[in-house]
Amino acid sequence: MYTQIPLGPLQTNAYVLYNEKKEAVLFDPGGDGAAFVNWIREQKLTPQAILLTHAHFDHIGALEEVRQAFACPVYLHEAEKQWLLDPLKNGSARMGRQPIKTKPADHLLKDEGTLKVGSFSFKLFHTPGHSPGSVSYYVADENIVFSGDALFQQGIGRTDLFGGNHELLVQSIHNKLLTLPEETIVASGHGPLTTIGQEMDHNPFLNGY
User: Fold this and answer.
1) Which InterPro entries has this protein been placed in (predicted)?
2) 20 to 30 A Cα–Cα from 90, which one of 58, 114, 158, 159?
3) For the chain (length 209 residues), average pLDDT per consecutive 10?
4) Whole-structure pTM over 0.90, yes or no?
5) What is the distance, to the nearest Å, from the Cα of residue 70 to the centroid of all Cα atoms in its chain?
6) Cβ pair 17, 53 in contact under 8 A
7) What is the CATH number of domain 2-202?
């Protein structure tokens, strides 16, 4: 079971994945920390971890507030291990916003494959291009992939920010995400849910590659 919750000034999608025991993992707490924490408590959920798809400012704006509220570890790809500490790299200093600095991630992701976090199991894909450490978390049992800003409904992530690479992003999408079953739900960092099949058929950035 999962819930999509847009947060922060850019309405970045946070996601909450939870089970019948009310155990949960949280994806990309981008802002509105107090409201997000209150919602989790109202649902009587017990967060076991915060999983970051990448470390851009609009995905980490409420990270420290949420981490402290639930004392749960943070997972991030090692390619962006300095980004939580550096407002230039995470983009907060470049966008005319309050610079964001947090504590380091508790766990640095490196290898693709199975990732076990508490009661949850994911297939981890490194999907760089939007940023060097972008990752996607696939949950076969839920038929969903949390893709961050790699793939959107009829769009892909921007690549004009620090560490971005358009060609690499398109390769990541084709070689990793489009290999998933076509009915797989794509839970993107912005906008509505879509599916792998819909993007294979209708995404203008992918057709004809």
Assistant:
1) MBL_Glyoxalase_II, Metallo-B-lactamas, RibonucZ/Hydroxyglut_hydro
2) 114
3) 95 98 98 97 98 98 97 98 96 83 97 96 98 98 97 97 95 98 98 97 84
4) yes
5) 19
6) no
7) 3.60.15.10
